[in-house]
Amino acid sequence: MPTLSYTATGFPDGSPAGLSGTQQLNFTWSELVWAAITVGRAGVSHVVQFGLFSAYEIVYRAALVYANIMETAGAGLFRSAAYDGLDPSEKGAVSYFLGLTPSKLFAERCLQVPWLLHLDVYRAQLSVVLGPGRSRPDLVGQDCNGEWVVIESKGRTHGLDAAALEKAKAQSQRVRRISGAVPKFRMGVQSYFESSRLCLSIDDPNGYGEIDLPITREMVEHEYYRPFRGWLDESDDVETLAIGDRIYLVRREPRFDLAVGLDAGRYKRLPTGKIQVAAAENVPASGDRFVGKDGVLVVLGTRWSAERMRQQPENRPSLGL
Questions:
Q1: Is 281 exposed, middle or buried (0-12, 13-18, 19+ CB in 10 A)?
Q2: In angstroms, rounded to a whole number, what is the distance separating the alpha carbons of residues 266 and 286?
Q3: E strands of 97-234, at which residues?
């Protein structure tokens, strides 16, 4: 099982034990892929509102994980030879994405925050509040109790960059309130490779700035689930899967050894689509499976096994790109 080492500082007294000192997160590859495909990014929401591109975006994010990260026998996550072979501009883009992914993983696991979206998703609505050319945090989201969090995420290839982490903290502090409520946490997060091993540093600084964001829970949910509705709407072969007392609508992509689904209740709360939820069948869910608190399901097949993911990407079975 893969592990991620992280160091958390600055969280207030009384915070859970996982928010202090150096800790380890143990997770599955399906959970990591879940984090990769669900974390909101600038511009993506406006592309994947069209169903066909939802599929492209979801498999593209999964493929980025597959190509650039590998597991070692000691269960740590290391950058792959494919990552090291990228040119500097490509590394910048991939390291940013790989920074967002463990940020989302940490947010759900340690903060009970399953919903995170990039602020630029709301660029049109927030243009007056944010102003042109002003620094801002990457991500806003809510925990399971409805409390807000703010995260600025950075990614670095060569070790912890203290100056970049300080900048991330300052950007997260710029937000004062969201929908009139004071955020529970404002965090600077940096993902970085230390001797090629992926690590995470998180700081929750004191203080806040002057930005009040008029973002509501309804706005978050609408944008968050849009790509998964498109993913399902575009397929003619959606299955129903019963897990416990929940029914999930699932689309499989055999070429990528990947299936992604959505809690049927979450789907039905969205605008009416073409899918009619029938009686659930217990569709076999082979391989590694994870269900997020957001109701998004990820199932990975044998190409994503620990044995395969300990090999360099060029030595694994290729995905169907």
A1: exposed
A2: 24
A3: 115-118, 139-142, 148-156, 175-178, 185-194, 197-203, 211-213
pLDDT at 47 over 70: no
Q: Which two tokens stand for residue 156?
A: 């670095």
Closest CA relative to residue 122, chosen from 130, 111, 110, 114: 130
Distance, in Å, from the CA atom of 155 to the CA atom of 95, rounded to the nearest integer, reads 5
Q: What is the C-alpha separation between 119 and 167, in angstroms, rounded?
A: 17
Q: What pLDDT is stored for residue 38 in this prediction?
A: 93
Write the pLDDT tens digit of every residue in 70-124.
998 887 899 999 999 999 888 888 888 888 999 999 999 999 999 998 887 776 6
Which tokens in the block code for residue 267?
A: 């789907």
Q: Between vectors from CA 107 to CA 218 and to CA 156, what angle results, nearest 5°? A: 120
Query: Each residue of 21-44: pLDDT tens digit?
Result: 999 999 999 999 999 999 975 444
Among 266, 271, 269, which Cα is nearest to 294's?
A: 266
Spell out a b/e string for 102-128, using b for 16 or more CB atoms within 10 Å of the CB, else e.
bbbbbbbbbbebbbbbbbbbbeeebee
